[in-house]
Fold each of these.
Amino acid sequence: MFSEILYAVEDGIATVTLNRPEKLNAFTNTMRQELIAAFDRIDADDEVRAVIVTGAGRAFCAGADLSLGGRTFDYAARGAIAADEQRRDGGGTVSLRIFECRKPVIAAVNGPAVGVGATMQLPMDIRLASEGARFGFVFTRRGVVPEACSSWFLPRLVGIQQALDWVLSGRVFDAREALAGGLVKAVLPPAELLPAARALAREIADNTSAVSVALARQMLWRMLGADHPMEAHKIDSRGIQAMGRSPDAYEGVASFLEKRKPRFSLRPSQDMPAFFPWWSERPFG
């Protein structure tokens, strides 16, 4: 089904691998479409409890495919749109799809991650990096601007000062600087990267309610834009009330008291509480 990514599910963990190793996994429109389709499949498959995204070969993603030269970012010159037409940023459609995902997403950054290769990671929940990984928000050095919703995500992840340092300079930096700046959770030897990502995914898959995870993921991300803690209190209250009477809450308490692993039954594809997605509600009818 896919030509520029690999998709595999094993023991409840989906692994999505960017797969143009001869081009350092440079981003194309085909890859964009396939990533969105993969996350659609992930959300529809209740057997998938967590997602790992990585790259084939020695790179994670070297950014946009620049084989068209100066026309790469000029959609009108490429004949993709009319001169007066507005087109959505392709990287942004991927970032928004990842943001909407009901499963936790872990980036295993195995090598260079530049441009969209860096920005597509930002809506992923946890980023682990190989010692050889390098990052670059290089847009100002290409005469363009940050994309893939990174002007929203990056300052929230690392703070405005660090975000501006990396974006305004457009410089490429190593994994240790990414760790110090808060972009990644850990830096690991190459051989330990995917095992560490799988162990993290396994911890989630084996011990948590899939619906609780889906709700908690959206609660934390969406509260980054709230203007008062009361907004969190409102959704916390709805979540506790809805989930507190669910079979997963009963099972979670019983498994704790009986000192055994939980056997949660709710499925994110069809058992989300009635208030989900709360951010789509209209305030006045």
Amino acid sequence: MITVKFTYENKEIKKISVSGHSLYNKEGLDIVCSSVSTAVIYSIRLLEANNEKFSYTEDKEKPEITILVKESSSHTKIVLDNLKVLLEDLSKDYPKNIKIKEALK
């Protein structure tokens, strides 16, 4: 199962951790894993294109990717809120494959 954890500070997303495998299908044919990966990487590229203050780490062996917001802006908020909606929608469609968690910092 893919686990997505959103961590908030002052009602804004400050950290997103995505880890695990969806196990929907075998590697290379897993539409759930592909959808999550695409949404996360696309969001990172949008933040990079706008020179937002954030960092991310990726560990392909676990697998895990973490996005850490260093300084929030309206653009950062839009991108990360949109990512959250996309992942929540996927978790509704594939509840056995994606779990969403939330925490306060």
Amino acid sequence: MKKNFIAIIILILLSLFGIILIQVQWLSNLLLVQEESIYNKIERASYVVTSDLSKQVSTMPSLHLKGQSNLPVMPDHFSFVIPQDKMIADYYTSAEIHNKIRKAFNKEKLDNLEFEFAIANRYDQFGTIEMQSQNFLKKLFDSTHSRRIEMPILPDNSESMEGLSAYEHLILVIPDFKTQVWKALAWMIIGAILFTLVVLTAFYLTVRTLIQQRKLSAIKSDFINNMTHELKTPLATISLAVDALRNEKVMGNAEKSTYFSGIIKEENKRMNKHVETILQAGLMDRQDIRMSMELKSAHQLIRDVLSNYELQLTGRNATVDVFLNAKNDRINADEVHFSNLVSNLVDNAIKYSKDNIPLHLKITTHSTTKNLVIQFEDNGIGMSKETSKRIFEKFFRATTGNVHNVKGFGLGMSYVKTIIDAHKGRIKVDSVLGKGSTFIIDLPLGNVNQNKDESW
């Protein structure tokens, strides 16, 4: 079982590692493809804008003749003259150019793409910026994170003037290009991360379930062993008592017959108690405990339980101090289940008392405006912090492991917690290893209008 468990963990880890590796590689490739796609869209949008601008403005030089038009055309009678043609800035404002670029981007599904732009005149060697957006120069020189695209603004008759260069250019700067590409892939990245988290969660739940199953398997074995031990003891005692009753000497002695009959009756009660405990555990699993709530005196119920333990406490040389100081001890409780939870706490103090020191059990109560507080304090073996956290778990037994050195099924404290929850109360434990434990119960005071019959 252990080898299979390790093999399953290794296989799951390898599968998880492979999935994450594939996801990372896929995202890396997708980023490159998306960068190229967005860049191509930007180029197409830029071409649309420059084509639109070229319809309004011709930036090419014009040919003019000197003299009369009817003179013969001689080489010395004509020359090229470059007039002062109007530029883009003379026709459009910066806001209008921005809107043209934004509309072109929107058609390419680049609605959220940020950009800066400028119209530059390339007539001289270095070029002159005619107009620019607010942060153009700042983003232009950020070559590490920005992407730059430059498109010439060609005149409409550029085909008939092949070889001549445009004097004006549209310059686009896409700031933080990679970041914007990542934003465009946001949903895909989020989906990939969520999918990976789902796989990690499934892996965690699978491993946790396997560990819990191993624990449950061990607990099941311990429980069966404990139950067998607890049931075999009274059965063996009853068998011996029956054999004794068949003895002729005992049959003729009424006192001895009564004695052995009493043993059989007590052991039968003990077996019934064990069976009832197991049945209660089944009811707790189904959350089907029937509660008959009535207004009761908690003090009286505590006294009744202590009277039932008088012989056991005397046999242990135990001292019980009872300080029932609550001015109001009336609670809405199921008499049977409330008595059982008090009985479990007293029995717990007896079972986990020290062998060489007499048990000292102290029970106190006090009331607040809304609650009754009951405290059980003993000088037993106490518990570690780890044990204190697990004391209310089903089948857990506060010993050195689940070894059968203390009688019981490990259901008592789980039952106590269940019943207190059903009474809408709280319980906490404060324990120091080697010094003893204190259980504090907080229950709401009685309400005469509460329904008598409830199920939990």
